[in-house]
Amino acid sequence: TTFQDGGEEVEDGAVYNVTLKKVQIQQAANKGARWLGGEGDQLPPEHTVRQYETSKIRAIKAGTLEKLVENLLTAFGDADFSYISIFLATYRAFASPRAVLELLLDRFGNLEASSHGEVANLNSLESEMVLRVEIASVLRAWLDQCSEDFREPPDYMCLLKLLDYLKNNMPNSDMESRVQNLLKQFQNQEVEAVDGFCSTSSSDLVDGEELEISNPEEFSSFQDHIVAEQLTYMDVMLFRRVVPYHCLGSIWSQRDKKENKNLAPTVRATITQFNAVTKCVISTILGTRELKIQQRAKIIEKWIHIAHECRILKNFSSLRAIISALQSNSIYRLKTTWMCVSKDILLMYEELSEIFSDHDNYLTSRELLMKEATSKFANLDSSEKENQKKSQKRLQLQKNKGVMQGTVPYLGTFLTDLIMLDTALQDYVEGGLINFEKRRREFEVIAQIKLLQSSCNSYCLIPDQKFIQWFRRQRHLTEEESYKLSREAEAAADTNILSPKSQKSMVKRISTLFLGTDVFTPPKEQPPKNSPIGGSSGESTDSASVSSCEFNHSETEDVCVTPISSPEDPLKKGYDSDKGSISSDKGLISSKGSDSSKGSISDPGSGSDSNCIPTRDLGLVPSSAPKELPVYNRQSGGSCIIRVSMDGLHASVYKSILITNQDRIPDVTQRALLKHNLEPDAVEDYELVQVISEDKELVFPRDANVFYGMNSHVNFDFILRKKA
């Protein structure tokens, strides 16, 4: 089979990509060979005749909402077999369920009006039957893939409208029974708290229980594999509930607006769980003042073993949460404690940390995730013989039980990719048409999420209420509390380490760790070379950027923002508090050395010079998206991405903004205000400044062209400052 680009077809309200598909349908012997009695598949090529058939694949590239909905009915005829799935997974970015349902049923599904030519000249009983089948096919797919779209308590307007349509046009059908059952299910179902497994609020505790600091003996009583299984159980329950469209960049990037505090609850729940695990690790290590150094080292060792068990269970979410906690400011500074951790366990810790190395845009974790997405068991490799033996022994026990495993990913990777796609690609193209090529690219990421959700059905884990209750009871330390306890456990040997108050600027919301377009800049860590512990292979020792954690019970989205590469030797580290330079957030995706062949997405906030968007072929119709997309820190094709922070209160959080060579100061200022949820009409009250160095700034005149006026030899970092 071969494909050939057939160009574009333009219709009123739609643009289509055309691909010609050439398929061999028959191979037969030529006349001479047939006279000799030969068969086609037994003869050399010069003695055979091949017959080919060329078919046209027409995939909508951009269109009005009406055309996109109409295409749901014609996509199969155009051989665009993945269109319905792509549309259903992404339409919430540009339309509501009600708008789509009304168009589908009232305009294109009105069988009574079909004889009047309202739907492509349907004027016969046969064509009416075809339309009925097409409508039923779309509705069935909608209910199969996105039934949550119809959960609209207490009125369920869309579901009632659909039920009314089916009663009139498809009475007594299976579809009608199914919709009635779904309506009853929604009406009888109490609203479940999606964070029910990980909430640490007192309302979730049994009467008489209070939040408490972990008792080391109680924590030690739980076997390592039991803790890992229970964390995996909680992660699986939450990840399976994630509604894929909640992850879309256009949806997730709006989460900080006041009116959107309940937006994307299924994603927020996974974030809350990630935070809970991270905070639990820190509180168990630091929460008890009376612990001796050797006892504290044993708890660190236990968490490293639990992280290893999570790796065996293919739970990359809790694995990353544990590693992040161990790399947090208050833990890695415990020099004497780390010296008491055994060498074998430190090597295990280093290998686990390297999974999340940011080298090549987190290539290691991406490849590992895709490799194990649908595998029955983990593929464990260790450079240390002792660790290899232990891993294989544990893995063999799993295999002997015959229990297959799914894969729980770190959701932040996908949120990053979708945010970057949303930033780099326009929502609308020329003529005000919805850019559906963007949705096809987004679906490539969403399809991976769905695949992993499906794999989670393989887990067979039983909840241990004793552990879950213990986990819920843990009182999480604030950043100041954990830092104070860390100082009490081991007095600071390095005066350069920042105090919690001076680290306030390092605190950011977990939504930025899980990637929004707002990115936080922590201070750089510059450990000495030749550190015995950690450091991802191929990375310089001064590239790790570390920040501390602030845990706030009233704000469920605070997080420990930590480096994802293994920290250099925590026994020898010292904070460089004098560094005012901007470094990328290692909780985010960077793209050192990434290229388009990697099929990966880069963080425009990472300062990389080679960022790209994935172009993986999932067997869908060929994409005609531009090969080079706007990136951070490089001007290309008349566009680039800059980072804009607000002076003063919001100085530690920035937003990624796409600019072109046509944009002037008022346009960029207005977009920056909108991104920071401020009044866009206040453009005249602000000035845009590019940060050149610690003591130099470039102030732009009122009508300057930002693209041509900016200094392209330094980071594309800007500040929006209120005029004096």
From TrEMBL:
UniProt xrefs under Gene3D superfamilies: Phosphatidylinositol 3-kinase Catalytic Subunit, Chain A, domain 1, Ras guanine-nucleotide exchange factors catalytic domain, Son of sevenless (SoS) protein Chain: S domain 1
GO molecular function: guanyl-nucleotide exchange factor activity
Keyword Methyltransferase: no
Record's GO cellular component terms: plasma membrane
Domain N-terminal Ras-GEF: 56-187
Xref: CDD domains: RasGEF, REM
Biased composition (Polar residues): 538-551
Matches recorded under SMART domains: RA, RasGEF, RasGEFN
UniProt feature, compositional bias: Basic and acidic residues: 569-579
Domain Ras-GEF: 223-492
Keywords, alphabetical: Guanine-nucleotide releasing factor
Pfam families found in the cross-reference section: RA, RasGEF, RasGEF_N
InterPro entries the UniProt entry points to: RA_dom, Ras-like_GEF, Ras-like_Gua-exchang_fac_N, Ras_G-nucl-exch_fac_CS, Ras_GEF_dom_sf, RASGEF_cat_dom, RASGEF_cat_dom_sf, Ubiquitin-like_domsf
Keyword Protein transport: no
Residue ranges of the region described as Disordered: 518-623
GO biological process: Ras protein signal transduction
Low complexity bias: start-end ranges: 580-610
Ranges of residues in domain Ras-associating: 638-724
Protein name: RGL1 protein
Name of the gene: Rgl1
